[in-house]
Write a structure and sequence with these properties.
The chain is mainly alpha-helical. The chain has 3 helices and 2 strands, in the order αααββ. It has a single domain, classed as Methane Monooxygenase Hydroxylase, Chain G, domain 1 (Up-down Bundle).
Amino acid sequence: MDELYRSLFDLLKEESAVVERLVNFGKDEVTALKEDDISTLRSAIERQEDEMKKFLLLEQRRAEILEGIGGPDGLEHAGKIREDLEMEGSRLAAHLEELAAVNETNRLLANQALSFAATVQQALTDVTGGYDEKGQRTDSPGFTTIDTSA
């Protein structure tokens, strides 16, 4: 049984490290979104995907170990390692909270970028009224107040 508790402890440490890397990649994503750096954004997302695959496998292993020790209630019988398990679990929870905050920032930045792109796209579409090629005001469809030739 002690071996299961030791495995759980090692697994929690490994999960915590994976989530910490996810947080760092998320921070890279924040920077890329702010700087409109698509290649860095793509790279950060790819690395996050790889780490998420690892995390999901670790979570599956953790569920199996917890089942082997009788679920979360089985931690009562962990003995000396119980405190270490609780500390590592708290560390993992803190990293997950930080990841959630970074993901929320990324979501807001992505929505802002999409809103800006939609606004620009709408401004560039044909509207009734504007100026023709000679700079004369016109109310005809197909003209815009923005020079779209660029």
